[in-house]
Amino acid sequence: MTHVLVIGAYGSAGVAVADRLVSHVGDDIDRLTLVDDGDPAGGLCILRGCMPSKELLSAAGHHYQARHDHRLVGETPAMDLDAVVETKDEHISNFAAHRRAAVEKMAEQDGVKLVRERARFVGERRVQAGDHEFDPDYVVVATGSSQFVPDLPGIDDVEYLTSADVLDATALPESGVVMGFGYIGLELVPYLAEAGVDLTVVEHDERPLDEADPVFGDEILDIYREEFGVEVRTDVYEDRIEQTDEGVRLHLDDGSSIDAESLFLFTGRKPNVGGLNLDAAGITPEGEWVDATMHAKGADGVFVVGDANGREPILHVAKEQGFVAADNVLAAIHDEAFEEYHNVHHHVIFSGATVYPYARVGHSAASAADAGIDHVVVSREARDDGVFKTKATLRGLARLVVGTDGTVLGYQGLHYHADVMAKTMQVTVEMGLDVREIPDRAYHPTTPEILDSLFRNASAELDD
């Protein structure tokens, strides 16, 4: 009797595991138990992550474009935060209901059980969920992530707003200081700026976007400062913070300080495994405690996927890891070798209020050089593209990295529609296409010139 138990079955990674395994129930698997105590259930991405944030960013994008289009006259309408949140809640409720229905439909199958309780280990592969105790052969943990709060002196004594708070805010402060300028900060800062908050951002490095070639980080700094009116302090670290009569005062390591009405804490996420009692399963969640097969080191039969393993907390990665873990459960049942998960780098940040998203697929110029790959690099400014001129979105640039044998190695874009183009470029990179053999218009039709120019320029560079 083979029994598989999934903890966190409503999340994106957990659903991917369950969806892959459910067709094997009654054959390779005798019992599949899905456990999740979410209330409301639906998974982090749907309820508090990428989907609700895009609802807010959509409003900010419309507001930004109305402000910047010289063909529109009169005062720019204010953002109605009540309407923004109400619309977000309505859509998210529908998305979550769809997710719940999908999981509950699986549970209608013979051999599949859904348990709506919080789960924890009480022994090696022994799991307690409410009044139930299970001894499954395989456990897949997909419990997502939670807010990371840095160990900063004074942080426990001040009030702050997290990304989750911003998603529900129908009123915002007049001014704010932002800690955290990674994915979360890059997306939410323009929203807050368009909503009327006077912002100062603390950036530890010379520029944001660590994964990007420097020109992209420099460009996004210019966009945020010039287009959104955000002050970004670079090359400084937080030293301590204190509450004041007017709000908060953040002291920096260069001796300066920033006063604002509120602190926005966008300092990232951490694996949500604190309540699982992993010690009982023989698991120590430190370092690289989950290997590339999604197997938890030191715990036979336990796999950890998605944000919970801390390897790469990105939605599409969580799903792909879920599929790999499910396949490896089946491999274990048949005493076969495990598959490792190695994804093509594919990230999209909905920066610039979604008007100027950043995307990277495959190698950047820097990573190709670090890997010792002979390559050429071609770039194109958005302002030179006719489509962007007609859409009045002239900021940004795109870059293509191509091996000297013609193989497309990577793409970066910080421009309108970069998010859409990323999917096309992911296929191009994964297939290892030769840039000289890519047919005309093998890309998204709304952005023809920028990719066409990159392909043609790269081909010309190789011919020289």
Describe what you observe in this structure.
The chain has 464 residues and is an alpha/beta fold. The chain is globular and about 65 Å long. Strand 1 (3-7), helix 1 and strand 2 form a beta-alpha-beta unit. The chain folds into three domains: 1-145 and 268-332, FAD/NAD(P)-binding domain, CATH 3.50.50.60; 158-266, 3-Layer(bba) Sandwich (FAD/NAD(P)-binding domain), CATH 3.50.50.60; 355-461, FAD/NAD-linked reductase, C-terminal dimerisation domain (Enolase-like, domain 1, 2-Layer Sandwich). The strands form six sheets. The protein has a five-stranded parallel sheet, covered by helices on one side. The protein has a five-stranded parallel sheet with strand order 9-16-10-11-12. It is 33% helix and 23% strand. The longest helix has 27 residues, at 81-107. GO terms for molecular function: oxidoreductase activity, acting on a sulfur group of donors, NAD(P) as acceptor.
SSE topology sketch:
Layout: E1 3-7, H1 12-21, E2 31-35, H2 44-48, H3 50-68, H4 81-107, E3 112-115, E4 119-123, E5 126-129, E6 132-134, E7 138-141, E8 145-147, E9 160-162, H5 163-168, E10 175-179, H6 183-194, E11 198-203, H7 214-227, E12 231-234, E13 238-243, E14 248-252, E15 257-260, E16 262-265, E17 269-271, E18 302-304, H8 315-333, E19 346-349, E20 358-362, H9 365-370, E21 375-381, H10 386-390, E22 397-403, E23 408-414, H11 418-430, H12 448-463
Parallel strand pairs: 1-2, 1-7, 2-3, 7-18, 9-16, 10-11, 10-16, 11-12
Antiparallel strand pairs: 4-5, 5-6, 8-17, 13-14, 14-15, 19-20, 20-23, 21-22, 22-23
Domain FAD/NAD(P)-binding: 3-322
Organism: Haloferax litoreum
Family: Belongs to the class-I pyridine nucleotide-disulfide oxidoreductase family.
